[in-house]
């Protein structure tokens, strides 16, 4: 009986740990996807307006959005919160 209880608790803890990691990963993936979509829209809007300067500025802005999205997603994956103190 004790072995069964111990195994059940171990299985439950493992399942909760896996859920926690997958939730962080899902949130990080969503952040990256939103940043990518935003960057794509910036580039598409710039392509609709004639002018080389607009395209160059838009490309730079899109690159900055992508980089920010990746950095934010990495912070979520690492478990850091907004003020740098880990809540986990």
In words, what does this structure look like?
There is one protein chain. This protein has helices at 2-47, 52-78. It is elongated. It starts with a helix and ends in a 10-residue tail after the last helix. It has 2 helices and no strands. 83% of the residues lie in helices and 0% in strands. By secondary structure, it is mainly α.
Fraction of residues in H or I helices = over 70%
Q: How many helical stretches?
A: 2
Mean pLDDT: 78
Coarse shape: elongated
Which regions have little confidence, pLDDT < 50, spanning 5+ residues? Answer: none
Distance between the termini: 33 Å
Please report the total strand number as a whole number. 0
Topology:
Layout (H helix, E strand, L loop, with lengths): L1 H46 L4 H27 L10
Helix pairs in contact: 1-2
């Amino acid at each position: 009986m004790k072995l069964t209880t111990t195994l059940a608790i171990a299985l439950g803890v493992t399942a909760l740990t896996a859920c926690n990691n997958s939730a962080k990963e899902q949130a990080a993936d969503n952040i990256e996807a939103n940043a990518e979509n935003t960057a794509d829209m910036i580039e598409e809007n710039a392509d609709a307006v004639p002018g080389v300067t607009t395209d160059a500025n838009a490309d730079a802005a899109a690159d900055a959005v992508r980089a920010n999205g990746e950095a934010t997603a990495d912070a979520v994956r690492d478990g850091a919160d907004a003020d740098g103190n880990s809540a986990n």
